[in-house]
Amino acid sequence: MIQQAKCDFCSDLAPAWYYPATDFVAFEIGPVVSKSEGSWAACDCCHDLIERGDRAGLAERSASMFVVANPESAEVIDSLRGELKRIHDLFFSNCYGTAQPLTSEVLR
Questions:
Q1: What is the reported pLDDT for 3?
Q2: 97: left (phi over 0), alpha (psi -120 to 50) or beta
Q3: How many domains does the chain have?
């Protein structure tokens, strides 16, 4: 179940889709572990990129939108894009089924 109304790829506040996914570890650095739990929400733009199989475009959009919200990260956008692509690859490996419309019932 989606817990927040935000695109999990670019942080757009108007997600319209969700992709069912199994839980996975996104990264582990010493005792710090970041897990992805459950479905991923996607805005229309990210959904279109996913459906077209444009992983490079998806990573570019995600990184660019992150820099818009966090301008101080502009100098590391190449590394950020690479890390987002790696996490997206984990998403694609753990995604099952097809995209579903994101409704208020799913957000509960």
A1: 55
A2: left
A3: 1
